Amino acid sequence: MHMAKDNGCNAGEGEPNPLRHQLMKLFWMLGPAYIRWAESIMEMDGHTPKRMYLMGLLFEYGPMMMSNIKDRLGVTATNVTALVDALEKEGMVERKPHPTDRRATIVSLSSKAEEFLTVNCFSFKDRVSELFSVFSVEEQEQFLSFLFRMRDVLIDKKILERKTRSFDSKEDHTPQNP
């Protein structure tokens, strides 16, 4: 087992890190690296990551106000407008006025985007998830179980929403053999 030495941050010189500190550091490092890996796959397919994130967001959560998209993607209102403009020009999203707020616009996936995501989703997920093939099926099931527990903690802390298209019930916690 790897026991890293702390470089002085919250521990005495030479003391081992608590395991949760090591986990935090690895997630901090691996999260962005995994995203870069996934983005490189998107770019190979000729799609910009931000456009795919926006379509994925709408695919998972359904129609959203532009302001919510901005907050979820962590970009400016100008960037969201540009992304939506480009996707609308490609026929991938549609804009509709908000039913009760004249200032707000609702963005939803078009049937063309739904079909595109449905058709291409499996091959994309298959290529991106290739990294997990270094683990046995049992290890993948255990890892998945841990990540679902972490997700539940983040839901309880109001950082994530429970209901999405891909993960919308407790049944998702049951690993399935391929």
Automatic annotation (TrEMBL):
List GO molecular-function terms, semicolon-separated: DNA-binding transcription factor activity
What GO biological process terms are annotated to this protein in UniProt? response to stress
Q: Which residues form the HTH marR-type domain?
A: 16-152
Q: What name goes with this protein?
A: Putative transcriptional regulator, MarR family
Q: Which organism is it from?
A: Leptospirillum ferrooxidans (strain C2-3)
